[in-house]
């Protein structure tokens, strides 16, 4: 079953700060390990919202708003698509990923990662 891990943005990164080199190295090692094991199918990080735009449909009309998106409390900073046997396995992989952040950034690090099953059109399972 495929799952998406969605990592919420770190405030310093959203403010334009450079990524922590120790964290980048640790994530690179874990990504390589998970890819070799056939668990990690795809991953990517996002640049700060100041580099992006938002397209909104409302009342039959479209509006485009350039970033940054200050009114948003939880921006997505990156994602990974995993192949896992169960939600529990996917959550364990998410915990391993977040532990890298604590190890690289220290005990004061606060972050959030969502684990969500991906829709499978073959089974049409939305539950």
Summarize the topology.
Blueprint: E1 2-8, H1 11-14, H2 21-36, E2 40-45, E3 53-58, E4 61-66, E5 76-83, H3 87-105, E6 113-117
Antiparallel strand pairs: 1-5, 1-6, 2-5, 3-4
Can you tag this structure with a few keywords?
127 residues; alpha+beta; Alpha-Beta Plaits; 30% strand; flat
Order of helices and strands: EHHEEEEHE
| Rg, nearest Å | 16 Å
Largest sheet: 4 strands, antiparallel
Q: What's the name of the CATH homologous superfamily?
A: Dimeric alpha+beta barrel
Q: Main sheet: which strands, in order across? A: 2-5-1-6
Residues in helices, as a percent range: 25-40%
Q: What is the CATH architecture annotation? A: 2-Layer Sandwich
- Low-pLDDT segments, ≥5 res: none
What's the mean pLDDT score?
90
Envelope shape: flat
Number of domains: 1
Strand portion, in percent? 25-35%
């Amino acid at each position: 079953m495929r799952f998406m891990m969605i990592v919420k943005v770190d405030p310093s990164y959203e403010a334009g700060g450079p990524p922590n080199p120790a964290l980048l190295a640790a994530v690179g090692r874990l990504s390589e390990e998970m890819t070799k094991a056939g668990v990690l199918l795809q991953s990517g990080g996002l640049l700060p919202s100041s580099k992006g735009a938002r397209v909104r449909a409302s009342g039959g009309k479209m509006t485009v708003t350039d970033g940054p998106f200050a009114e948003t409390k939880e921006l997505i900073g990156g994602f990974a698509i995993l192949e896992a046997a169960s939600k529990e396995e996917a959550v364990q992989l998410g915990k391993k990923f977040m532990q890298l952040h604590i190890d690289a950034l220290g005990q004061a690090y606060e972050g959030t990662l969502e684990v969500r099953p991906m829709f499978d059109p073959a089974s049409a399972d939305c539950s």
